[in-house]
Amino acid sequence: MKALPLKSVLPPVVFGVGGLVLWQVLTVAAGVPSFLLPAPTDIASQFAENFDRIVDAAIATGTNALIGLLLGAVFGIGAAMVAVRFHVVDGLLTPLAAAAAAVPIVALAPLLNSMYSTTTDTPRRMVVTIVVFFPMFVSTAKGLRQVPQVQQDLMTSYAAGGWQVTRAVRLPAALPYLFTGLRIAAPGAVIAAVIAEYFGGLQNGLGSRITSAAANTAYPRAWAYVVGAMIVGLLFLSAVLLLELLTRRPRTTLWSTK
Q: To 5 degrees, how large is the angle CA 54–CA 184–CA 247?
């Protein structure tokens, strides 16, 4: 695996450090109150003081996000395979998926919380699953339709069935699109899990800790939990990028020879 070139790593690092320095200077020099925008040093101090609590909350939120991401990805990929295989199903699933994506999390989370016990994480995982389903369904379906006609004709000449074509030709060709959907869905899963925690239920995740700290005017601590959520989102995205690198292989055609 090739190392990232310095010119691709240095600019975002410089930009990030410069942004933090500017943020610190402006908040201190202008005397910005903490309820508007705490200084980075105050947030870092609270992050260090509450590190164990942030880790525990991040594990709770990350678990919900991971389970919802896996379920949403499986359902989305499976639905895309069926939709591409059967046009009637495509006509039914596509509008439903678009309708599900149009429902805001702030409306969905309280509804699911009222349907299930507040002592379970099921509503939060359902929210994440619904949020993840749409990008995975759309991206995978688009990828499955990108197979060149010549390859489909070749498989037909081999008397391959529809599912054989999907498994041997369509899915390998759809991998770039599938990972595009995952790159969108992975951070979105964390965002959905955090927002779902704003509306009651177990008080063990990052979202509930953010609202609790803000309600007690502990704004630097609330921002420290926000930083924890950002780290979880970056870990999810990094895991997807690593998985994509591990599964990437040189493209070969059906008629290639050694």
A: 100
Task: Return d(Cα 76, Cα 120) in angstroms, integer.
Answer: 24
Digit-coded pLDDT (tens) for 47-75: 999 999 999 999 999 999 999 999 999 99
Q: Where is pLDDT greater, at 201 or 130? A: 130
**What's this model's pTM, rounded to 2 decimal places?**
0.82
Confidence grade of residue 93 (pLDDT, cut at 50, 70, 90) = confident
Q: How far, in Å, CA of 152 to CA of 164, rounded?
A: 11
Contacts by 38-42 with C-beta closer than 8 Å and gap 24+? Answer: 38/219, 38/220, 38/223, 42/220
Quick one: pLDDT band at residue 165, thresholds 50, 70, 90?
Answer: low
Q: How far is CA 46 from CA 53, 184, 224, 244, 246, in A?
A: 11, 30, 6, 35, 37
Q: How far apart are CA 89 and CA 140, in angstroms?
A: 15
CB atoms near residue 162 (< 10 Å): 12
Angle between helices 51-85 and 122-144 (to 10 degrees): 40
SS3 of residue 40 by DSSP: helix
- Distance CA(53)–CA(50), nearest Å, equals 5
- Show the CA angle centred on residue 101, arms to residues 125 and 162, nearest 5°: 90
DSSP state of 170: I
- List the structure tokens of 204: 């063990």
